[in-house]
What we know:
This protein is mostly helical. It has helices at about 55-65, 65-120, 125-165; strands at about 5, 10. The protein folds into two domains: about 1-35, no CATH class; about 55-165. The chain has a two-stranded antiparallel sheet with strand order 1-2. β1 and β2 form a beta hairpin. It is elongated, with a radius of gyration of 41 Å.
Amino acid sequence: MADPAIDGEYVGPSTLTTSGNLPGPNKPVSTTRQTRTTTIQTEAVSFQGPIPPPALLREYNEIVPNGADRIMKMAEAQTQHRINLESIVIKGDDRRANWGLVTGFTIGVLVLVLSFVLVMYGHGVEGTVLGSVDLIGLVSLFVYGRTERSKELRRRDQKNKELTKRK
């Protein structure tokens, strides 16, 4: 069968001849216009968190045996996993911080002892310079750490204030 659309006009099946010839340019064309209406409806559902809303859980139970129970167990396992990871990270951070303090203190004391030994053996200038540099470095590090901690606390306070204003 030939294409019934000619020059953008719809040619109804009644205008086709039995031989399948389409009407030519000099032949009258009977046009019948048909209108089709298509309605498309979409629905979007969203939720936050690992657990779907109760209605959706009931639907999971209809599709998968014990579907809701499996989802709840998965959410509980994921929560426990996250808690364990956070615990490991916090303990590791604490351990690294403590070792950093111990190492820094040990190095500082050793350098001060070395500077004292230098002064005792007649190298007063070298021992004094070494001890002074060590003390200045330790004090600077302490002041820098306190300043950075203070900046971080101010930044967190500002962020908390912004979050509470939005609600």
